[in-house]
Structures are given as structure tokens and as C-alpha cells.
Amino acid sequence: MKFPSKGLYAITQTEAKSADAIIAEVRAALQGGAVVIQYRDKTTREAQPLASALLQECHRHHAPLIINDDIELAAKIGADGVHLGRDDGSVAAARQLLGPKAIIGVSCYDDLAKAIDMQGQGVDYVAFGRFFPSNSKPLASPAHITTLQQARQSINIPIVAIGGILPDNGAQLLAAGADLLAVIGGVFEHDPEQSARAYQRLFI
Ligand SMILES: Cc1ncc(COP(=O)(O)OP(=O)(O)O)c(N)n1
Ligand SMILES: Cc1nc(C(=O)O)sc1CCOP(=O)(O)O
Fold first, then answer.
1. Which positions bind 2-[(2R,5Z)-2-carboxy-4-methylthiazol-5(2H)-ylidene]ethyl phosphate (predicted)?
2. Residue numbering of the annotated binding site
3. Dihedral sign, Cα of residue 94, residue 97, residue 101, residue 102
4. For residue 73, how far is its CA from the centre of ligand 2 (angstroms)?
């Protein structure tokens, strides 16, 4: 499945929630208009059954499911792609295991040179952040809106912004050059369907 060129990229907040609750929340976010879902699981739960159920749910809505950090889990369940951070393995290893059609995204934090390098390595999107203080990841380092503006000039794959993004602060990131807004709390700590709709309005 292709990575969308714009829209809400919703990331599951899996801690302290049952698998059924997570599936229901993801379904609601998709109904509200999320165009990509990421499974980001920092718990010790057996991830495969839940990730497989989320993949089915995403495909019912024609949205890709991206697995955070875990290339092998992505391969095992046939996910649409993987998101790689600093310590999550190389793009080459992910491409080799997942194949040419897999979506590979990378965290570039506030580092435009890294994003340009990653684009050269054939990734499908680059992510910058965090742009606003984040309850989901309080220790994430700040990124600058000027980095997005500069990225717009030199990056021709989708640019994702992340970190503390709410319906009322997201428009400035889109104006600066972001194509997609990646969100945990703003979607999953509220009514996910209504919240997703509020983000989707930013893209009209
Ligand atoms: C879309 C998107 N952007 C950034 C991140 C952060 O990834 P990473 O730096 O690997 O940190 P963790 O998510 O693993 O804490 C992301 N997951 N998704
Ligand atoms: C997972 C993650 N990565 C970040 C980064 O800056 O790389 S910020 C972040 C948390 C995003 O969640 P929320 O929308 O609730 O702030």
C-alpha cells in the first residue's frame, strides 16, 4: 500500500489498555479520517495478535499500518511498513527484510542533513519533531519550525511532523512544510473519531 501524501498519521498509545480497547480506538480514528496508523508498543505484551488485528482494521479502511521500531514484527504480520528511530536498525536491513514495496519511515528529529541522507537511501517519508511539549514522550528534544521550512526546499518525499500536535497548533506546521501530522495524545486521549475529524479539517 502507498504512503499517503497528506493527512492525519495516528499512533496508538498502547499502555494500560486492553487489546479490544486499542482496536476499537483505532477503528474510530480511521472512521474519523486518519490516513495512516502506527502500532507503537512499549509494553511487554505479545505484540503479534494485536498488530495483526490492527492490520486487518487498517486495510478495511484502505489505510497502511506501520510498525514502530520492530522490523521483524512488521515482516511476520505482513505490515505495510516500519518506522525506524535512532537505534532501530538500518534502512538497508529493513528494505531487505520487508521488500521494495514496504513503507520505511525514519525519525530525523531536528536534523535536516539526516533527512536528506535518508531520502537518498530510499526511505518513503521523513519525520521531524517534537514541535510542542509532548505528554506521550516528555523527554523528546525540541525541533524548530524553520527545519520544516528548510526541509520543504530539499525533500521531495512526504514530511511528517510529530510532538504535542493538537488541532489548534497543527496548521502552522502544515504551513511550514509538513505533509502529515503524527499524533498520539491528541487523538487517543480524547474521543478518537471526533478528534481525528478535527485534524482532518486542517487538510481541506
Ligand atoms: C511518525 C513518527 N515519528 C517519530 C517517531 C519517533 O520514533 P523514535 O525516535 O524511534 O522514538 P519511539 O517512538 O520509538 O519512542 C515515531 N514513532 N513515529
Ligand atoms: C513518539 C514521539 N516521537 C517524538 C519525536 O520527537 O521524535 S514526539 C513523540 C510523541 C508524540 O505523541 P503526542 O502526539 O501525544 O505528543
1. 134-136, 164
2. 38-42, 68-69, 88, 107, 134-137, 164
3. negative
4. 21
Place of cell 514496504: 102
Active centre residues (catalytic): 40, 107, 137
Residues having CB closer than 6 A to ligand 2 are: 107, 109, 129-130, 134-137, 140, 162-165, 183-186
Q: Assess contact for 110 and 121: CB atoms under 8 A.
A: no
* Ligand 1 within 6 A of CB of 8: no
The pLDDT assigned to 14 comes to 78
Ligand 2 atom nearest to CA at 189: 15
- What pLDDT, on the 0 to 100 scale, is given for residue 13? 81
Instruction: Please report, for the chain, the start and end positions of each structural domain, with discontinuous segments joined by +.
Output: 7-203
Give which of 2, 6, 8 is closest to 28, Cα–Cα. 8
* Residue 15 pLDDT > 90: no
119: enclosing H helix or E strand: helix 112-120
- Give me the architecture of the 7-203 domain, per CATH: Alpha-Beta Barrel (3.20)
pLDDT tens, 122-142? 999 999 999 999 999 999 999
28 CA distance to ligand 1 middle (Å)? 22
Query: What is the spatial distance between Cα 78 and Cα 65, in angstroms, rounded to a whole number?
Result: 10
User: What gap in Å lies between CA 149 and CA 62, rounded to an integer?
Assistant: 30
* Per-residue pLDDT tens digits for 40-90: 999 888 899 999 999 999 999 999 999 999 999 999 999 999 999 999 999
